[in-house]
Amino acid sequence: MNGQRVRAVMAKDLREIGANPMVVIPMTLVPAVICVVIPTVILVVALGAGAARGVHGLEQVEKLIVVYPVPAALTEPLHRMLYVILNYTFLPMFMIVPLMMASLISANAIVGEKERRTLETLLCTPLTNRELIVSKLLVSFLPAVTLSWAVFGAFFLVTNGVSLAMIHQWIVRSWIWLPSLLLLSPSVSMMALSLTLLVSLKARTFQSAQQVAALVVVPLVAVVLAQVTGAVILNALYVVLASLALFAAAAVLILRVLPRFTREAIVSTL
Length: 270
Known about the structure:
Layout: H1 3-18, H2 21-49, H3 51-55, H4 59-64, H5 77-89, H6 91-116, H7 119-123, H8 129-167, H9 177-202, H10 206-213, H11 218-229, H12 236-260, H13 263-267
């Protein structure tokens, strides 16, 4: 496999992604709102309202405090509740970021080429089928994972900056973030990529590929709801096992995609 050709395709795709507002706007606005603005607003409002008003309406979350390893330094019930919300309840939301980014970029990388009528030219180059699929995978996987880490960095700095200023305590500091960012985020991205590639082989428009790929968000929303009801209690072991299962499922899908990713199959959908 020729690495120079793979890098050339990746560079071309990155330029096209940067020029497409349908990809750039969701990539920047949605993660910032979901993972930085909303948790910060929750933190500021809850701490500003005080314990009496802050706990009101969150009785279900309050019941979960006893099943999560909340630091002993957080003695106030409201502070302990916010720790559970920001470190555990919000964790699946951070998996939506790499999932959504990988789906958007992957759909644009394949179906976007069809719509721009540039895929025919690409198929006439000396690229092998394997080089083409690897370049499309990497150009989606690497930005998705990198962006998820960057968004967490912003979330970590902003929320802890607010909590340090208001209660003199770090509020986001659970060790579960480590396996989540290093294992779960990449595995979710890879799973989203494999599903989007399957869809993109047949889809003729970017919107149709994006809509079908968006369905993979549903399981993560279900995890959030299950957490709030107490049906699922997240811990590092579950995160690692889920990551390994997703990596295995993604590998199976990619191995099924690769043989089908031929010039003849793509041309038939143009």
